[in-house]
What does this fold into?
Amino acid sequence: MPNTAFHKLKDRIAVVGVGNTAYGNFPHTDDYGLGAEAFRRAVEDCGLDKNQVDGLGVCRVPYYARMGEILGLNPRWTVQFPPHGRMSAMAIIEAAAALDAGLCDYAALIYANIGRSRRVNYGGEESPGVWDPFGFTSPGAAHALMFQRHMALYGTTTRQLAEVSVAVRHHACLNPDAVMKQPITIEDHEATRPITAPLRLLDYCLINDGAVCLILTTKERARDLKKPPVMISGFGAREAYTGSSISNFNLNFWYDEVQDVARQTYGMAGVGPNDVDALMCYDNFSPTVLFSLEGLGFCKQGEAGSFVEGGTLRLGGRLPTNTDGGHLSNSYMQGWALNVEAVRQVRGECGARQVPNAQVVQFVATTPCSRSIIYTPG
Amino acid sequence: MSSKPRPRPDVFNTGFWQAAREGRFTIQRCDDCGDAHYPGTPVCPKCLSSSQSWAPASGRGTLLSWVRFHRAYWDGFREEVPYGVVLVGLEEGPMMLSNLVGAEPEDCTIGEKLEVTLDTSDPEWTLPKWRRVGRA
Ligand SMILES: [Zn+2]
It folds into this structure.
């Protein structure tokens, strides 16, 4: 276990406002337009005077100063995060540390994605790499490599993998904001075209436009705002940069790193996997969910395939996961919307997809920068 | 016919491709601590020494995983889909992605031994590819 001095931040920082745009294909606007809309909704959600926001973190927004200009903000803390999928919890943890240190009093984190309108491909000429001459490209192919190996080592099947896509699609059907609203079955998953076999279309996240904003402050300041605060009760972090010339790939499924993250996060929050009422799991590709379940200790390594069988991840199942529909079926907000969903679950605002009495909701991103956050009621 | 993407080595990896052109399969080795790595780096990731060489590699490896591309991300690969890409763990430690020659990945077992074979079909860039051991 690394130095755990950061555990003193337990229940010190609250998410007080969340907002998101509609999700889809919006060529009439851009990153800034979407980001501004999400910010306005988050401000309305918490009832804060927007001029009190003195911390600004932006991700996938091209230029922080333009975002600040548009919103009329001149903060005293600004961070620009690179437009990578793994940044959401990294940014939230950075903001929590900044708030605790007094570098700002109210931090707004804004994520915007216009990849649908821009026709982003995530592979080929748009992202040149070392392995191009062999025809290897794209994060999806890296996850296909990992899942192929998981199948070989542990006997995991694509029908088990389908459980992930089927469960989160079910949740998307209950989410008015979600892009994909047609229910699917395991057979549908098995019948869709392969992209990078063993992965099929339904193992891939969506690519759509949209934006998300979270507003955070300290526990004391949170009391004066509109809604009950949702506390950040635990978090943990570990990178895996060795071998990253094969992007988005880890030979051992980031198991050791996520185990480390789990020890930090559960240790800080004082809970364990059995206490988790709902899991918000970064699902750029469906295998990531299986790797996350193993790393966090919901099952042993190699057993995630059987763990998810029979609807474990569905509402009403043992571990409701990605109740908003995740990246696979709600929206490609790269972890940001999942953190918003965690907050809404703790608040009890999720309507038809609400997990009854959600007291402990966990976010996890199993990536080269693995992170987890546990949210609880304030 | 569209061409396939070719290597675009940075300054630390030109030695690998020069050696391949000369028929040698190499790996970057630290002159001070012996650490083997690929792709090449400006300093040794283990001891930070700047003294590194492209040293002969055994050409023996293990099949760690594979993927079959049904989508062509480059026009140059359009006629080959669905094509396979294999992940090979070199005997010296590093991993490389490449293609299998003379067999399909579906025929192989994960963990099976492979050996390197230099593909000289492009006169400018020799590509290290892999084949099953003893089945050439
Ligand atoms: Zn060295």
Notes: Residues 14-21 of chain B form the longest helix (8 residues).
